[in-house]
Amino acid sequence: MAEIPSRDGLNDFILYSQMVIYAICIALKFLGFQFNALFAALIAVGAALFYRQVKSAYVNGSLKYITGAQDQLRWQKQVVFITGGSNGLGKATIKDLLLMRPKRIINVDIADNDITHDTVVNLKCDITNSEQLQGVCKRVIDEHGTPDIVILNAGAFDAKSLTESTIEDFNNTVNVNFTSHLWILNAFLPGMTARNSGHVVSIASILGELHAAQAATYCATKAAVVSLFQCLRADLKHLHNAPGVKTTLVFPGLIETRLFGSVKHSKSARLPKWLVDFVLPSVNPTKLAQRIVGDLNMRRTGDIRSPYFVHLASWYNHLPPFVLDLLEYVGIFIIGFVGVHDYIDHVKVAIKKQ
């Protein structure tokens, strides 16, 4: 079942850390340690931080959901449109959506989908072809109406440098990761804004805010998606006056899929697996899908970032150049030490096997 996610996972971490610290302080107090002034100050600060945490949770809807003060989404009336739902995160999202019992799930993918369910409609389409995709969108509107939920999940990763890539490689990555978003939004947004309801979800990436060698086209397209959604939110608020249309932008790190699942633990790793998982944790697609469906259920606009280090990406590029250089050298050292310095080569091998 879909879990109710926190808008910022770091908030939960901070809150739990505070609780542990105060529990230790109370235990020391009962053991006879004398620090009355310090103890009182810690309790006062803790109470203030806890109040801020509870207030923040209420504002973003978490407490409203738990207490039942906010109505849940009426899933039995929802028509969901998703791209790339035959594998990986898309497939996990469809499975979790089925638990919510929506009216219809329309999966648009060039690959075959082995999920057989009366609720799921599979439409085969090459989303890099504008005519095919526009035809599918028109068919969906004619047969099901404008979708209530649009999940832009399909993605392509071109594991090549700029000098290695061909024009066909560029076009495929750009069309799958970005241009298809424009075509789909152009088809469905008028209906959503007219009725002032709906939800648009897009799977961006931590590489939409950072950079990596041999991934220039991928990074550029994910950065374009981030910019597109910022503009979309501004349009919905100031141009269309449609606060009922919500948006969710997902920033995952390395997702455990058939393409990236074996990338992290290469044979050259010199650290135990548990330590590699701690330094560079990957994202379980099932858990990420639960967070996405949880945000849909709460009907709110926001970002989902996972795992923990993705929260740091938004301010990374604002650091001074000399700090960026230092972090880059440290990152290269860590990546080399845990055995993922050749991760692009693993991706290339995985792509060839598909």
UniProtKB/TrEMBL annotation:
This is NAD(P)-binding protein. PROSITE patterns: ADH_SHORT. It comes from the Eukaryota. GO terms for molecular function: oxidoreductase activity, acting on the CH-OH group of donors, NAD or NADP as acceptor. Belongs to the short-chain dehydrogenases/reductases (SDR) family. The chain crosses the membrane at residues 20-51. SUPFAM superfamilies: NAD(P)-binding Rossmann-fold domains. Gene3D superfamilies: NAD(P)-binding Rossmann-like Domain. It comes from Wallemia hederae. Coiled coil: none annotated. Keywords: Membrane, NADP, Oxidoreductase, Transmembrane, Transmembrane helix. InterPro entries: NAD(P)-bd_dom_sf (IPR036291), Sc_DH/Rdtase_CS (IPR020904), SDR_fam (IPR002347).
